Amino acid sequence: MSRTNLYDDAFTFAIDAVDADGRCKEKLAGASNICAANRAFDELLFHFNPGEILLLRQRGRVIRREAAVGGYRERVIAEALTQGNSQAAP
């Protein structure tokens, strides 16, 4: 029997997109490690439209609640250009 928490998550840490009332719209990710969960949360902030609310939970406790910033495509292009320039330098 697998152990799940109050929200039926198999992971200790979960990332959810929520509506304005705090109700879960979509379960995005889960992790058993806080470092992995924090890194995934940081990345997901760029994948959603600005203003959408994401939660990082440890079972039922909310650890982080932040609005998405968007701009994933722009960030990837900027990083690619930066990496391309640094590789060309002697």
What would the keywords be for this entry?
90 residues, alpha+beta, globular
Account of the protein in words:
This protein has helices at residues 34-47, 72-88, and strands spanning 13-18, 24-31, 53-58, 61-67. A four-stranded antiparallel beta sheet has the order 2-1-3-4, covered by helices on one side. By secondary structure, it is α+β, with helices and mostly antiparallel strands. A hairpin with a 5-residue loop joins strand 1 (13-18) and strand 2.
Please sum up the structure shown.
With about 90 residues, the chain is an alpha+beta fold.
What is the ordering of alpha helices and beta strands?
EEHEEH
Approximately how much beta-strand content do the residues carry? 25-35%
| Side-by-side strand order of the widest sheet | 2-1-3-4
Count helical runs: 2
Q: What is the SS-derived class?
A: alpha+beta
Helix content: 25-40%
Mean pLDDT: 85
The gross shape turns out to be globular
Number of strands: 4
Distance between the termini: 57 Å
Give the biggest beta sheet: 4 strands, antiparallel
Report the radius of gyration as a whole number of Å. Answer: 16 Å
Poorly predicted runs are none
